[in-house]
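README: folding subset

This subset contains proteins for which both the sequence and a predicted structure token string are available. Records are stored as plain text. Below is the entry for mitogen-activated protein kinase (500 residues), shown exactly as it appears on disk.
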Amino acid sequence: MDDEDFFTEYGEASRYKILEVIGKGSYGVVASAVDRHSGQRVAIKKMDNVFENISSAIRILWEIKLLRLLKHPDIVEIKHIMLPPCQREFKDIYVVFELMESDLDEVIEINHDLTPGHCQFFLYQLLRALKYIHSANVFHRDLKPKNILANADCKLKICDFGLARASFDDAPSAIFWTDYVATRWYRAPELCGSFFSKYTPAIDIWSIGCIFAEMLTGEPLFPGKNVKHQLDLMTDLLGTPSAECISRIRNEEARTYLNSMGRKPSITLSEKFPRADPVALRLLQRLLAFDSMERPSAKEALADPYFHGLANLADEPSMKPISKFEFEFDSKKLTKDDVRELIYREILEYHPEMLREYVCDAGKTSFMYPSGLDGFKHQFADLEENNRRVERSTCGAERRTLLYRKYASLPRERVCAANEEEEAEETDRNSHKKENAASVVRATILSPPRSPNGKEMEDARRKSIIMQNNRCNTVYKGHRIVKSASMNMFAVCYGSKTRK
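--- output ---
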């Protein structure tokens, strides 16, 4: 084995060149980078001192394990995890993801005039991903616009599986919700104030309903300040739930509050969303049923007339339920070293040679080897220090923008506005547009085959993207496209040309 092959396997960190910080949070830092071997851009998530908090480390373990097992074009993909220099002592983790340009939160915030076509396509992708996730008996449990990544070609991918869990039986499972307000806004009513509950797929369906409503209006549907305020907002729109429905809420304080509440009539969604498609609102009504037993499954939602001509249930992928043996650790009390060993074993899934050695030696490898992470840490450190210096010398919005990706939303070409001189022509086209749009979009976003194995699904996804880039420009050909500098590098989805 020559030097290049050796360091590809053991020192792969040297193959990535860090470009810029695109996100920060309690988890660590995310930077965009270039793979020097392939030339592709990726996102690298750096997590420092992972094992200082065992609960956080276990959350990371769940996420990287689930993302290895769940392979779907609407779920973010882990491309690689850096090999640490020492099995017994490593503290940091570097995970390489496919690079996405933005997230749905920023898309909704900046693009206030998303078209019905955008909303339908976005919801379709989210439900298609949920159908796959739920077929594996996995619940995401923290769906919100920030946890949905977006690209300029209107592609969405669900991410952040740290709170996701697999269901193996009917026993309740515990979850410690973060106290971020944004998380509360998308939380199902049966979970309000509850930290210990039996989870069903309906909790994710409620979150998707809230996200869909936010797409339609550009504003969060239930921005509650606390549990009681959250319940007030829900009942203001949906009316007071039945006594039977209230009895299924586990939190005693929430039950008491609802029982003491005066009767409220529901508001018709057409009053709340006067400009929305009535067919879309009928589906939204189902997704936002206060009673979890009345919400549709993701599969049932995909069969709704709203997706007529777009979804084909026979082609939407599913997978077998995840084996309980993959998560045996969850029933045990784990030490810091236990979690480190489990994460190390998961990292080796991305290093086949080392995995074979590890299995043969029964996991007893403890020597140091050249991982290349030291140099990689310096790249991150230099980048973060430069950002801090710039932050100290700037202020306001300019300072905040430096920490995030340049393409904060879908480029404006994705949001189509009718040109005044084309309005008359547009009226004549309207009668044909709906049928044409449905057939074209259906043809361009065909689901991959049922097999969850990588090669077949990736081939189907690649063909789908190529077809989409080649054909979907005919859907909105008559619209005026607002120009954006960022569009030169991306294929146009909801517009065919840019006028000078």
